[in-house]
Amino acid sequence: MQRLQGMHVVVGVAGSIAAYRACDVVRGLRAQGALVRVAPTKNAQAFVTPLLFEALSGRPCLLTSLDVDQGRIPHVEEAYQAGVVVVCPASADVLAKMAAGFADEAILSLLLSFRGPLIIAPAMETQMWEHPATQTNVATLRARGAVFIGPVVGPLASGRTGQGRLAEVDDVVEAVVAALSPKDFNGKRVLVTAGPTVEDLDPVRSLTNRSSGKMGVMVARELALRGALVDVVHGPLKVPLPNTPGLRGIPVRSAQEMAEAVFAGAADVDIAILAAAVADFTPRTVAPQKIKKSSGPPVVELVPTTDILFTLGQSQRSLVLVGFAAETEDVERRAHDKRERKGCALVIGNDVSAAGSGFDVDTNRVFLARDPLRGASMWLPQLSKEEAAVAIVDELRTLLP
Ligand SMILES: Cc1cc2nc3c(=O)[nH]c(=O)nc-3n(C[C@H](O)[C@H](O)[C@H](O)COP(=O)(O)O)c2cc1C
Description:
By secondary structure, the chain is of the alpha/beta class. Helices cover about 35% and strands about 25% of the residues.
């Protein structure tokens, strides 16, 4: 799914050792369908040639503010067309110039004509980053609405380790996607659960299930992209949790830990989406030492875990509660049944035994079990989990007061 189809993105590049990583940012933005224009500073051009940026972006670079193209001024025109500007990497020097309003580079002139969202990914030596002059410039730019991604702690060009390393390329691209996403969930607080739980039998063995967590993570990400503040309470995931602005992971292991984290976090949320595959049963006791083969096959007594969805449905008044039903048969009836029994506004059913649906695959075919008063329930076509998340979040929008 291309999230930036046809959108104009300007990438300003400053003279930093990390300038070469701007190449991957350009590639990542183009992979999302963006029309990218790179504006390297004169010093950045000493690190990476414009030729490479032009080849990767497929468009000429903005190389200087002293440029006129057939009577038009490219950096001004681009400022009016761009949906977002990302400065990556931003040097200490460029931060200072942006804060002060300098216009002696194409990217700086462009920024003075630009009124949209600005994302800044700094890269520099720790001492430069921590210097009061730099921090004052950062504060000035933040106060004007700029979003900073990083710098992170890691190995630096000097061979030292500290804060100052450019953020991961994927995180910079994700910030651009977030900046250009609709904000129809602005200010909403959401709790999402995702992934499997793990019920320990002894210090080395456990009972779990095949959930990768991808569907829940995609729903959480979609909500964060659209402006919500999202806490994801998750068991061990098989997919990375994206660094989407507004998204926070709360790792847990067992069903009991998940229940505690959900009840602690659900008090002040507007929406709770329980997509995790929570164990229904857990061993009554956990053996303190590894169970020995020589003792013969153990008899494991299982006891029910807390029904998180049901408990939330009982306790919350104003919460929009959404459940997931992973079934292997009779999906529609079971999803409807679950919605009624658990007090949910919506249950998303899927057949985890069908090809291209459910656990461990990138696609899903989901059934929206709606309250009959709100309209007919329906199957969505088979979609990527990212596309299914968009459809689920669109559906959620209709459930908000
Ligand atoms: C090898 C090398 C690496 C550098 N890396 C950085 C850096 O990561 N961050 C930074 O702020 N300056 C760095 N500098 C210093 C900048 O290149 C210098 O301040 C320059 O004036 C920045 O120009 P610009 O901000 O116009 O692009 C580096 C210099 C050299 C020679």
